[in-house]
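Thread: quick sanity check before group meeting

JM: Hey all, I'm pulling together slides for Thursday and realized we never actually wrote out the predicted structure for the chain we discussed last week. Dropping the sequence here so it's in one place. If anyone has concerns about the input, flag it before I start.
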Amino acid sequence: MSVLDLPPRTGASAGASVTDPVMDERTRSRIGHGLIACGLALVPWLVVLAAGVLVDTARESLTWVGLDGLEAVGLVATGLLVLWRDPRRVLAASATAALLLADAWFDTTTATSGTDLMAALAMAAAVELPLAALCVFLTIRGLPRAPRPLGGPRRSR
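JM (edit): ok, ran it. Output follows.
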């Protein structure tokens, strides 16, 4: 099954209770709602960045607003797809992980002073890298299992 052949999402609209082998309902709810909350929490930060308070140029402001805006969309989308049990959560989670890792890298490498660097390292360690790790976890756990080879040797039981 390729990415383009993923089955449609399943859920309450199908009328039956669908079990997901990846995570239980409580974990799904916590992760999904947590990711949505993190994405929505970025909105005030985007307003601060767009106002240009923390940056030197409008171009720099646009760069950071774009990156953090994509992260917010990725977090909300991943959270919704987790709640909906949609297998496409793997795609959203992997893209969001890449964005979060890039943000942590750029924040720490573009910090200009000791205080800025400490703030960037704190944000990376406390927020961006743990969220990226969660997204990588969701990606790995959500991938379909590889089928057994047909012509290969069988294991004895």
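AS: nice. Residues 114-142 form the longest helix (29 residues). The CA atoms of residues 51 and 85 lie 37 Å apart.
JM: adding both to the slides.
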